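Recall that a protein's primary structure is simply its ordered list of amino acids. Everything else, from secondary elements to tertiary packing, is in principle encoded there. The following example makes that idea concrete.
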Amino acid sequence: MDFFGIGLPEIIFILLIAFVLFGPKRIVELSRSAGNVMRNLSKDASDIQRKLSEELEGEKPGGHGTPDRSSDGAQP
């Protein structure tokens, strides 16, 4: 099991150091906060992806986005 190039012994060591530094109650609070941050980031990323997809769909030819500029008589 390898997360970002860190093996299981390194993960256990990091968790042990965090447990000693912060204590069991603070670890639970930090875990909850980290979970909330990850959930919010995931939600925000999904919203941005959805909005970007909607914008790109609107710019396709024949889409409901910006009007065709060639019909105004201007030369490029």
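The mean pLDDT is 80. The helical segments are 8-58.
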